[in-house]
């Protein structure tokens, strides 16, 4: 019975860790973090199976005054001590905003998992010019976005009585169009 328990306790498991880096992380810093995590996985007797950079994305909610972040996916095979060491290092890094680890499978045969060189290669994603953060004035509502102004103009055009409501909802599109032309319906 104890042999079965010790064999089960020493079996490899498959884990995935997703962590978020600050949006302004530099190429050198992100490559340093990736090499550090790769070294930790190999040092702790694990096997790295996938390393992906998912790019810069908007966070669901602000985390430490950060509204955007660089999402990175890490998949590996190892034991519980490997997970605690990976998370400990992520906690120590200033560029890491958040992380989460999930166990995917129990009792994985390490030799059966085939890993390609491209699967574990980390690639830095350059920020696109579209990813410029909003100005502080827009955040505070002091400036109006262009699409908001277009929507306001459209709403004003459809509000003929001046009461703040869309007349097309009550009267129908044809009647509002006729009213615009000055026709009596």
Textual characterization of the structure:
The chain is an alpha+beta fold and 185 residues long. It folds into 2 domains: 2-133, Ribosomal protein S6/Translation elongation factor EF1B (Alpha-Beta Plaits), CATH 3.30.70.60; 138-181, no CATH class. 37% of the residues lie in helices and 27% in strands. It contains 7 helices and 4 strands. It has helices at residues 2-9, 27-43, 80-92, 136-139, 146-158, 167-171, 173-181; strands at residues 13-22, 47-63, 66-78, 96-105. Strands 2-3-1-4 form a 4-stranded antiparallel β-sheet, with helices on one face. The protein is elongated. The termini are far apart.
CATH class bucket of the largest domain: Alpha Beta
Low-confidence stretches: 1-9
Oligomer: single chain
Structural class estimated from helices and strands: alpha+beta
Based on CA atoms alone, the radius of gyration comes out at: 27 Å
End-to-end Cα distance: 89 Å
CATH architecture of the largest domain: 2-Layer Sandwich
Fraction of residues in H or I helices = 25-40%
Please state the overall shape, judged from the principal axes of the Cα atoms: elongated
Order the strands across the largest sheet as they lie in space: 2-3-1-4
Counting DSSP E segments of at least 2 residues, the number of strands comes to 4
**Proportion of β residues?**
25-35%
Number of helices: 7
CATH superfamily of the largest domain: Ribosomal protein S6/Translation elongation factor EF1B
Largest sheet, described in full? Answer: 4 strands, antiparallel
Mean pLDDT: 77
